[in-house]
What does this fold into?
Amino acid sequence: MSNMDGSTLIDSTPHQNPRPVKNSRTTAAQGRKARQNPGFSFIIIQDPAEAKSQARKKAVRSHVANLQHYNEYKEWKQQRKTATRIEVKKTTRTVITETEIHVDESNATCNCKGSIPEDECPCQKPLSTQTLVQKSSYATNLTLMKSMFTMDSVSGGVRVDPFRCYPVPYESFMPRVIDHYLVQMAVDIPELDAGTVGSLRSVWFPFSMTEPAVFLVILLLAASNYVSVSGDSSGIPSLLLLKQKAIQCINQGLRDPRRAKSCQLVGAVAKMASYEAMYGTYESYSIHMQGLSKMLEIKGGLKNLTLNGLLMRMCLWIDNNSAFLHNSSKRFFETTIAAPNPGHFIGAS
It folds into this structure.
């Protein structure tokens, strides 16, 4: 508004109920549409003067606006991802547990012995005053807890080789069976450990990974125990087929002059004898034990076996417990071991 003298007057009267200005970013975030990258746009001119025409300027402004909208869309999309990650972190919550312990001492003996009035005796306090409240709080990440309780032991931890570096061609059932062997069967056995706890896991199993015959016998033992304990044979090959592969690999090793004299093959034959003692017949067990006796003669006796005496103790353990199961005589008398433990023998080792 202007005065007669040309000066400008400013109307200071406040506006009633001014209309709020909408935030373009907020509005866009509420109804955001997917935007495509406009990329490059080329303007073809034949005369430099055409670059200043209204049509050319409009094309440039339109392309710049599209590019700006696309950049805003990218920023909004990134913010949504960040917000989602924050929302997941909020699932960590604190849970308070309360435990009330009621101590009823109505029948307890008073230790005051009449030295103070009965109504002042602390031993006669009502039950409500003897209530203890125990509170504990802990943070629980729901996602972490779920992953803990649904952990796949077959593919997790250090029990199973994630690179599948086995001495035989890999098959899908192997991780499950090997995990069962290391957890349920290769337990601590004092008669075998002899002061070194966990020898079956830390010494014997790595030793078996160096010879296909030993590894196949362990697969056979573990698969047989797994099926008998769980009753689930899904995904596991026929036990007869596993037994055939193990015996075939042992025979191939015996025909190889280098492998035939190795302690690995001695262990394979010994474990095959233990399998027949538990799941087979006495005749089959005797055949393997005869072969084991001849192999030990070639090596000069049990004391020449490797693994710091572990393999010798395993042979004696198998001989002692198998003789107990079949009520037969032992084959190795020159060295003794602890009394038979058929429960440990069948369920472990």
Summary: The CA atoms of residues 92 and 141 lie 4 Å apart. The chain has 13 helices and two strands. The beta strands are 92-102, 131-141.
